[in-house]
Amino acid sequence: xxxxxxxxxxxxxxxxxxxxxxxxxxxxxxxxxxxxxxxxxxxxxxxxxxxxxxxxxxxxxxxxxxxxxxxxxxxxxxxxxxxxxxxxxxxxxxxxxxxxxxxxxxxxxxxxxxxxxxxxxxxxxxxxxxxxxxxxxxxxxxxxxxxxxxxxxxxxxxxxxxxxxxxxxxxxxxxxxxxxxxxxxxxxxxxxxxxxxxxxxxxxxxxxxxxxxxxxxxxxxxxxxxxxxxxxxxxxxxxxxxxxxxxxxxxxxxxxxxxxxxxxxxxxxxxxxxxxxxxxxxxxxxxxxxxxxxxxxxxxxxxxxxxxxxxxxxxxxxxxxxxxxxxxxxxxxxxxxxxxxxxxxxxxxxxxxxxxxxxxxxxxxxxxxxxxxxxxxxxxxxxxxxxxxxxxxxxxxxxxxxxxxxxxxxxxxxxxxxxxxxxxxxxxxxxxxxxxxxxxxxxxxxxxxxxxxxx
Length: 455
Ligand SMILES: *Cc1c(COP(=O)(O)O)cnc(C)c1O
Hints:
- The protein is an alpha/beta fold.
- It is built from 20 helices and 11 strands.
- It has helices spanning 14-20, 35-38, 46-58, 60-66, 85-94, 119-137, 153-160, 171-183, 197-205, 217-230, 243-250, 252-262, 283-296, 312-319, 348-354, 366-380, 386-389, 394-400, 402-410, 432-444, and strands spanning 26-28, 81-83, 103-108, 163-168, 186-191, 209-212, 234-237, 273-278, 300-307, 360-364, 419-424.
- Strands 1-10-9-8-11-3-2 form a 7-stranded mixed β-sheet, with helices on both faces. The protein has a 4-stranded parallel β-sheet with strand order 6-5-4-7.
- The protein starts with 13 loop residues before the first helix and ends in an 11-residue tail after the last helix.
């Protein structure tokens, strides 16, 4: 067998050595640009953001008909924005740090309906886009007609003749599978080795075909893409390059803006908004960052969180090579319990879009994720999965590290005026016995796990 040589010789770069050591790190993005410079150069604009938001609005009645649990929210796929002062206090105590300043909120996408994760936004948007396009082409829907005609038997017959295919570490499969099957599509989900059994079982119950791969996400995705290309009438939902997923995620920023206004939280130059976004391939955090930069401009400071064992977006950003480099190329194995973030290569689409917008990335160890998960449950009664807890380490990096202090200084930020939004991205459907295992793991973590943050 031929031994595979790394695609680039990055061994001399101290930043790469740092990633290889798998210690938590806050990296500040030297390529971040002011929003008014960066946004006009992107392949998407404000009109795309609005079109995605309007699509969700338009389909409200359809979604309510298919998922009665959405009735109360008027068919909106939305999650609460909730103050979490007890979590902030508990985290400071756990890390033996002084009280942590600023306003702390959780954006609770772990509780999103349909998929139980942030994937409900991107995945549902892509399936609705596809269904609408097919129905329009087939003459079953006209631009002004009643959207619920998409639920008629003729439309179901049409969708039954089409297939959706997707590769997933779990949550995207749940989102596409549940939404697709509800409209009548045949759906095939290719699960990577990281995917949890309960996620596969949940899909099979709904008549979704689940194909299990022993390979990691990138390889499962490549196989699924090839297979889908051979079949006519099959849409491959491409997590590594789909604009429809990306734009579906971006709508979350509008929801956040409305909720911040309801809570009377100011966002302006004096009152910066920090978003802490768990990152896998980058679609979800990238889409939200894109939306937030449109709505809040330079008052939004968006940071991506990744496992120390899978820092794919960070590697792509700091080398400038985006999807042309994978963590395996620098000798890292894909190792993390955070299945939602377990990817080795960032999205081809998002890397370049995020490059001028994201403020920085930080990495999180699995024990830290478990500890954060435990503290969220104990002090705020929020039950999340490990991936979803990754974001919550962010404010410690900003408030208690040398790089964080540098960031606050260059942006003239007064910590007491900042709002920290911890984006919890998945967990509502985790079976109780698994949740109990997560909590036990988090409870067992020693406080020494926080060593390294400066007082
Ligand atoms: C997918 C996922 C993310 C990250 O989204 P990407 O688009 O892959 O970056 C974060 N958290 C959870 C729970 C997820 O399932």
